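Lab meeting, item 3. Inverse folding demo.
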């Protein structure tokens, strides 16, 4: 009896897991479709670019099959061309959607923290380790390059914050490289849309194991503002923030 009960429980668990995966997949497709519809309405060039890329790649595949002069080659290349065309069209959608998101977030309070939270790869991000009452902020990133401080806001106000954080962190990390980045469109600054690419181009100076050790030491250092003092994502520049600014000052 116990064996039969265990078998039934296992089957029920597998069925539940399958149903959960199916529901998650359906939700992702729904979100993707909604994102496509929004992007299509905002970006009039999206569909022409996607359709054009698809038609060109399928056309190349058909032409290659005809040149080969083999029916088998033609039959094999057409499905391949369709798959490649669909893939390239999807990549075009993803790139243009990403650019649109970054363009909307550009210049908004909390945009750099949001971009760092969405980094792909093994990055350890601590937003808002230092901030001013005007929402100029410094975020700390630990990665293979070492420790990276990313500042957003007014360059005149954020640069002293970056210098202070670099100085107090250098006492704990020893020879580990420390990088300083200011997000913006001014001279010597990194645009928000190029922040991830800029980080990935930095050289790998430490191992993942060293990153773990480094993170443990820097957690003890803490931050100068609490999590509630920083916005969770990009905030419009015209938003009413006086109450939140008073919270930051009190902290």
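The presenter then showed the designed sequence:
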């Amino acid at each position: 009896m116990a064996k039969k009960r265990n078998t039934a429980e296992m089957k029920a668990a597998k069925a539940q897991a399958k149903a959960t995966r199916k529901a998650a997949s359906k939700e992702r497709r729904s979100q993707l479709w909604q994102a496509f519809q929004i992007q299509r309405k905002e970006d009039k060039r999206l569909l022409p670019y996607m359709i054009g890329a698809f038609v060109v790649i399928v056309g190349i595949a058909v032409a290659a099959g005809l040149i080969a002069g083999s029916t088998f080659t033609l039959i094999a290349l057409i499905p391949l061309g369709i798959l490649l065309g669909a893939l390239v069209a999807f990549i075009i959608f993803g790139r243009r959607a990403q650019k649109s998101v970054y363009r909307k977030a550009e210049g908004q309070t909390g945009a750099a923290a949001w971009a760092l939270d969405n980094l792909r790869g093994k990055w350890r991000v601590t937003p808002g380790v230092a901030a001013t009452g005007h929402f100029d902020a410094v975020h700390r990133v630990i990665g293979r390059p070492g420790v990276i401080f990313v500042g957003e806001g007014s360059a005149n106000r954020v640069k002293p914050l970056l210098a202070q954080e670099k100085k107090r962190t250098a006492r704990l990390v020893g020879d580990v490289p420390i990088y300083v980045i200011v997000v913006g469109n001014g001279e010597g600054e990194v645009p928000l849309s190029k922040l991830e690419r800029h980080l990935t181009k930095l050289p790998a100076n430490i191992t993942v194991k060293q990153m773990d050790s480094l993170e443990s030491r820097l957690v003890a250092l803490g931050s100068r503002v609490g999590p509630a003092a920083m916005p969770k994502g990009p905030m419009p520049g015209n938003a009413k923030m006086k109450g939140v600014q008073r919270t930051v000052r009190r902290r």
